[in-house]
């Protein structure tokens, strides 16, 4: 091979550019050079989608504040970044990708970093496939900009219906309340269904206390429209007038361009949902690498592949991928299913976090789980900082292994989950969590930290 190794990256956001920069750094350390070309369908690169709900709420002034690195910065680092360039096909045997404009690029290594676009159900679309005016998803910077301007245009008394009550739905409900709108949240299941019922109930109560009309078990069946504009939402149990409808019902891996790439015999496989399953170095087949939202991740506790499209996994896996591609050996050794969000508006402040398995996961893994909810405070009860907190802890009766922890509470509650995640990461027991050395002073915790009381209560009953 003459010239530097040609790396083609498809998708130039968190994973694509994270991996590209890491590959260049590792290659430089090894005295090698790479020719990196990054192809990005949209006109944006390297931004924090996670910050979009807070931009919609008015906590963040501008979309520019969410940009981590500009296109110019990538190019200055030597990356041939091509925006507005969608890849529509690949040929794994010939090692080429083809763009929508018909350009064919050869690669020595291909990085699939295409993420997972938001799902837009048929009921949200006009006959021509576009969404009705006033209806949209929250995924890209362009979506964020569209919502910020729709929020600004909507008059006082406008009503926003949010479909979906996962992380994005809850964060958007907060944003809409903060903008002074009436808010209805419709969910097919319950609020934050990734939580156990008793913890999800606390979130539901918080939403309602903040003034959200929350409809559980609602299956949306269609929209009321006036021409191209939405005027309401219909579900199996009712209707609600709406000026704006935010659809937050999940995402799906963007791997369609690989479907006819000659998968047979390539070693590359897509799951039924189109996800890839990379090894800890990000390798999915010879000369093909992937990480981030287009992939599933391996959960260490039960060794299951799960779809968890989160930036925290994406960033780590991208770094390992970039390093490994350039000859290093960094690896992303799975996760323990940790995540966090908050709902904060109208006098309600809830921090919501989870790590580990759900009870259903644990039972499916053949474990014998015992779980309890413990209530307490985030600081000594006599301190003004003290806020209520509820903690769900689950451990295995046979091995005493910690299996999962969930937290819902006021300020200071949420990041307690990281202590539990560290125990899970290390494969520790509920006794480790109950007895490990954690910090204490009245503004931060009770003498027996509430997380440790919760663990102790479970340990006592095993
Ligand atoms: C509203 C919101 C809030 C979030 N909050 C959090 C949070 O609090 N914590 C957390 O951990 N995670 C959060 N996430 C998730 C996090 O943003 C993602 O996990 C992360 O962006 C994934 O990075 P990625 O590079 O894999 O995918 P993406 O960021 O989606 O990037 C993929 C890129 O590939 C491009 N692309 C796709 N197909 C093609 C193609 N065929 N050709 C060329 N380009 C293509 C896309 O245009 C896109 O720019 C949030 C996401 C959203 C939307």
UniProtKB/TrEMBL annotation:
Matches recorded under Pfam families: Pyr_redox_2, Pyr_redox_dim
Annotated FAD/NAD(P)-binding domain residues: 6-298
Gene3D superfamilies with a match to the protein in the record: FAD/NAD(P)-binding domain
Protein's UniProt keywords contain Cytoplasm: no
Keyword vocabulary terms for this entry: FAD, Flavoprotein, Oxidoreductase, Redox-active center
CC cofactor: FAD
Domain of life: Bacteria
Domain Pyridine nucleotide-disulphide oxidoreductase dimerisation: 349-447
Keyword RNA-binding applies: no
Assigned protein family: Belongs to the class-III pyridine nucleotide-disulfide oxidoreductase family.
Protein name (record): FAD-dependent oxidoreductase
């Amino acid at each position: 091979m003459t010239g530097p190794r040609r790396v083609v990256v498809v998708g130039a956001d968190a994973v694509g550019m994270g991996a590209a920069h890491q590959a260049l750094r590792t290659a430089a350390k090894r005295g090698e050079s790479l020719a990196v070309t990054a192809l990005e369908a949209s006109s944006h690169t390297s931004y924090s989608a996670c910050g979009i709900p807070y931009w919609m709420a008015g906590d963040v002034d501008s979309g520019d504040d969410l940009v981590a690195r500009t296109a110019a910065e990538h190019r200055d680092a030597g990356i041939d970044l091509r925006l507005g360039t969608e890849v529509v096909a690949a040929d794994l045997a010939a090692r080429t990708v083809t763009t929508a404009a018909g350009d064919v690029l050869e690669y020595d290594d291909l990085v699939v970093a295409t993420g997972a676009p938001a799902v837009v159900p048929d009921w949200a679309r006009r006959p021509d496939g576009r969404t009705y005016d006033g209806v949209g998803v929250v995924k890209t910077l362009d979506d964020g900009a569209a919502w910020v301007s729709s929020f600004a245009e909507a008059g006082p008394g406008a009503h926003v219906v949010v479909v979906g009550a996962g992380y994005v739905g809850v964060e958007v409900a907060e944003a809409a309340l903060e903008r002074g709108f009436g808010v209805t949240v419709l969910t097919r299941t319950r609020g934050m269904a990734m939580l156990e019922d008793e913890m999800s109930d606390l979130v539901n109560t918080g939403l309602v206390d903040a003034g959200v009309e929350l409809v559980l078990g609602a299956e949306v069946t269609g929209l009321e429209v006036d021409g191209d504009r939405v005027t309401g939402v219909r579900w199996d149990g009712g209707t609600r007038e709406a000026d704006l409808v935010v659809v937050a019902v999940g995402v799906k891996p963007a791997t369609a361009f690989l479907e006819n790439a000659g998968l047979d015999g390539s070693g590359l496989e897509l799951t039924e949902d189109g996800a890839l399953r990379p090894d800890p170095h990000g390798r999915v087949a010879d000369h093909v690498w992937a990480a981030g939202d287009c992939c599933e991740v391996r959960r260490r506790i039960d060794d299951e592949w799960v779809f968890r499209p989160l930036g925290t996994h994406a960033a780590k896996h991208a770094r390992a991928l970039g390093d490994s591609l350039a000859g290093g050996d960094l690896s992303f050794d799975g996760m323990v299913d940790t995540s966090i969000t908050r709902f904060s508006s109208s006098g309600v402040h809830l921090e919501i976090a989870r790590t580990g398995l759900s009870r259903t996961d644990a039972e499916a893994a053949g474990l014998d789980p015992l779980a309890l909810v413990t209530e307490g405070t985030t600081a000594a009860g006599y301190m003004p900082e003290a806020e209520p907190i509820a903690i769900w802890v689950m451990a295995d009766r046979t091995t005493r292994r910690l299996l999962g922890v969930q937290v819902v509470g006021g300020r200071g509650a949420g990041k307690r989950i990281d202590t539990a995640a560290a125990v899970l990461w290390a494969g520790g027991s509920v006794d480790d969590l109950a007895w490990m050395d954690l910090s204490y002073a009245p503004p931060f915790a009770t003498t027996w930290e509430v997380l440790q009381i919760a663990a102790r209560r479970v340990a006592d009953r095993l």
